[in-house]
Amino acid sequence: DGGITQSPKYLFRKEGQNVTLSCEQNLNHDAMYWYRQDPGQGLRLIYYSQIVNDFQKGDIAEGYSVSREKKESFPLTVTSAQKNPTAFYLCASSPGGGGEQYFGPGTRLTVT
Amino acid sequence: AQKVTQAQTEISVVEKEDVTLDCVYETRDTTYYLFWYKQPPSGELVFLIRRNSFDEQNEISGRYSWNFQKSTSSFNFTITASQVVDSAVYFCALSEPSGAGSYQLTFGKGTKLSVIP
Predict the structure, then answer these.
(1) Where would I find the H helices in chain A?
(2) Nearest-CA distance A41 → chain B (Å)
(3) Residue A29 scores a pLDDT above 90
(4) How far, rounded to the nearest angstrom, does the alpha carbon of residue B16 sit from its chain's CA centroid?
(5) Contact residues of A toward B, CB < 8 A
(6) Yes or no, beta carbons of B109 and A42 under 8 Å apart
């Protein structure tokens, strides 16, 4: 089956710890994205990558980091510098050029 | 100013009623794309439709229809004969060029639709 997988579905961490969220796609898409969603809010772009080994900051990149070493994978690290990390995180991929983005099932991160 | 405005935060309808979800966007680009996504309680966003800025033809897909009007910068979504399974949060989104051939998607805050049996 073609699609996007994110793991884990739920993640719990203590304040001050870095945590990495996984995102893998087998759609052969060039572009990948990370969004954050807070309750009652739309999605906000954290980082995006158009090609391997290249990525750009989105609107709310502070406290986050990413890597794109393989076309299929775009992991997101939530660092201890992120002041309010508890949120729902969604990964997406797209063929690029304004094409539709397809989303993974999301990871709900809770930091206490 | 918001680039994508979904003025209706929550809507409740009785099953079989028709319902229209409003979306107003703002852009200076002549080439852009508009989208609607559905987010059921499970959380995953489901792609519904993509329109480019040069195609104002309305589209119908089963019980779903979309009305794109550039003159009013609107891209409204109508569900005919609503069903309980339509209950979800619906997002309108705008994709604009952001340089070097890439596009950036901006989402509205969503409209929560509840269909009551």
Answers:
(1) none
(2) 5
(3) yes
(4) 20
(5) 31, 33, 40-45, 48, 50, 56, 58, 88, 90, 92, 96-106, 108
(6) yes
Instruction: Give the span between the Cα atoms of A112 and B9, in whole angstroms.
Output: 29
CA-wise closest residue to B89 among B6, B3, B16, B1: B6
**What pLDDT does residue A1 have?**
61
What mean pLDDT, rounded, does chain A reach? 92
Give chain A positions within 8 Å (CB) of B44: 90, 103-106
Question: Cβ separation of A50 and B42 shorter than 8 Å?
Answer: no
pLDDT of residue A2: 67
CA distance A80 to B78: 43
**Yes or no, beta carbons of B91 and A42 under 8 Å apart:** yes
Is the per-residue pLDDT at B101 higher than 80?
A: no
Quick one: pLDDT at residue A37? 95
Q: Which of B103, B95, B42, B111 lies closest to A6, judged by CA?
A: B42
Average pLDDT, chain B: 93
The contacts of residue A1 (CB under 8 Å, 6+ apart) are none
Q: Mean of the pLDDT values across residues B37-52?
A: 93
What percent helix, strand, coil does chain A show, rounded to 5? Answer: 0, 50, 50
